[in-house]
Amino acid sequence: MLEGKIDFIASHGQTVFHQPENQMTSQIGDGGAIVAETGYPVVCNFRTIDVALGGQGTPVAPIGDKILFGEFKFCLNIGGIANISCKLDNRIIGFDICGANMVLNALASEIDLEFDKDGSIARSGNVNHDLLNELNAQWYYEKPYPKSIGGGWVTKIFLPIFKKYRMQVEDKLRTATEHIALQIGKDIKNIYATEFLTKDETHSMLVSGGGAFNKFLLERINYHSSVPLVVPDPATIKFKEALLISLMGALRQRNEVNVLSSVTGATADSVGGEIYQSAQKKLATVSV
């Protein structure tokens, strides 16, 4: 279907190991193998140079938030991990907030569901305040930004906390949803305080990622946040991250900055990404 329309493939890959404090990060998805399979040039491994420069290597999306979605003060992506960006006068900041869909989907799997559609099961549950307090007390939440977490932190440190509590799944989901919304609201408040921002009625927050389809989660975020949420059309929700990775690939091809040190804490901005060339004639762009 895409024959004759592809310039190159921009592939972020799947993060399987992330320890920026030790200058290590790893994403599966081999660029050379993708070139061999498709015949198209590939841009991949966007994070590694930033990590080598002392940065977190993530989130990388804020460069796209800045260029493509500049009308929004905040951009919130609720994926496996929730992350946020905020545009300031002369820079943009961003960081990972907490585990999100990784947590909710893992809990839903306990009753053989892939996910909790619309958050309806969570809505039927009750908050366990002992569990909520323990979730909120995790050390990561006290770290100042720039900061990031990997899936390993969610699966090995965060999710095991739920196993300590004998509860119905709906109560676990309700408590996890409240935790996510609380952390998002707290971090927005922290950004205003840290950056000496004045609240403005023009400020709004674009929400994307799978969590943007979770109606109950959005209700709880609205409750804990002072910034109005803007939920875009389904295509933007689903494909915003792919669009941003495609933009990063295009910037790399043009040798322009695509990873911002104001977001990651690196010693300098960088042009991230390895390029695997192909003899295939260039025509358009795709992201995976």
Structure description:
This protein has 288 residues and is an alpha/beta fold. It folds into 2 domains: 8-57 and 239-287, ATPase, nucleotide binding domain (Nucleotidyltransferase, domain 5, 2-Layer Sandwich), CATH 3.30.420.40; 62-237, ATPase, nucleotide binding domain (Nucleotidyltransferase, domain 5), CATH 3.30.420. It contains 11 helices and 11 strands. It has helices at 31-38, 48-52, 62-68, 101-108, 120-124, 129-136, 151-158, 169-194, 215-224, 234-253, 261-264, and strands at 8-11, 14-19, 24-28, 42-44, 74-78, 81-87, 92-99, 205-208, 229-230, 274-276, 285-287. The strands form 3 sheets. Strands 7-6-5-8-9 form a 5-stranded mixed β-sheet, sandwiched between helices. A 4-stranded mixed β-sheet has the order 10-4-1-11, with helices on both faces. Strand 8, helix 9 and strand 9 form a beta-alpha-beta unit. Helix 3 packs across helix 10, helix 6 packs across helix 8 (169-194) and helix 8 runs parallel beside helix 9 (215-224). The longest helix has 26 residues, at 169-194.
